Amino acid sequence: MVTNTRAAVTAQRAGDATTRAGPGSGRAASQVRLRLTLIGGFALWRGSEELRVATSGQRLIALLALRSRPVRRQQVAGLLWPDYPAERSLADLRTALWRVNQRSQKVIYATPALLRLDGAVDVDVHDLTAFARGLSQAEAGLRAVDLDSVRLAELAGDLLPDWYDDWLHDEREELRQTGLHALERLARALSAAGRHAEAIQAAQAAIRLEPLRETAHHTLIEIHLSEGNWSEARRQFQHCRQLLNAELGVEPSDSMRRLLEKSRLAGALPSICARCRTAVRAAR
Fold it and tell me: Which of 91, 123, 155 is the last residue of a domain?
């Protein structure tokens, strides 16, 4: 289900470029930008067409896509074929590179020493990190950001979940942390825009991604309180408290308790004032 959705969205994003290129010739098709998706699984697209890539080529493309600068051939070979002697790993790298670039559009730019992903390839991970950076800047009041430019499923998705390569571990964790912070910021931004239902979905996605992350629970409680749903906020606090107690043996932070206490007092103040006015009128 997730894969089909990703495929549909990827095809839709590339549709305008396909239309501009026009039907017919291979030359027109080569003008369509390639799009690489790594969140949820590997796929390389040209317009609405998914291109077939051998396993070794997939890993080569993914590795280069996740690096922000050109990588030396020896380093790439050592990461992708760590159990092979240097000479054989470099030979396998040359074979994989040749196979990947045997198409009308080159995917990898290569020099005798360095490799990098071609600049004409769009990458979903790059879009996500740019969106997360934009949310951070928007929260600081430095710029505006389109809250709908990245799908919630991409922010909460796993990076190449069926791959178990050692070199991918740090990349996966870095993207997970980026997604968690982005989900929390997105939830706050949506709530501030009055889109509370979507804000709740974003906060819940962060909690599903990391159930013990207190800041995600804190964000969800804030959204419930901004809607005036005290009971929902209290229920979420109790859920968070039980979870932290059971898994870590700790209590929620004082800041979360103060958030609820402040809201409870603010809600009680109007009724206290009303009773005071009633008593004064009666005394007169």
Answer: 123
Q: What is the 3-state secondary structure (H, E, C) of the chain?
A: CHHHHHHHHHHHHHHHHHHHHCCCCHHHHHCCCEEEECECCCEEEECCEEECCCHHHHHHHHHHHCCCCCEEHHHHHHHHCCCCCHHHHHHHHHHHHHHHCCCCCCCEEECCCEEEECCCEEEHHHHHHHHHHHHHHHHCCCCCCCCCCCCHHHHCCCECCCCCCCCHHHHHHHHHHHHHHHHHHHHHHHHHCCCHHHHHHHHHHHHHHCCCCHHHHHHHHHHHHHCCCHHHHHHHHHHHHHHHHHHHCCCCCHHHHHHHHHHHHHHHHHHHHHHHHHHHHHHC
How large is the average pLDDT for residues 57-67?
Answer: 97
Span 159-191, pLDDT tens digits: 999 999 999 999 999 999 999 999 999 999 999
Q: What is the pLDDT of residue 156?
A: 94
pLDDT digit string (tens) for 78-89? 999 999 999 999
Query: Has residue 183 been placed in a domain?
Result: no
The domain containing residue 278 runs over which residues? Answer: 211-284
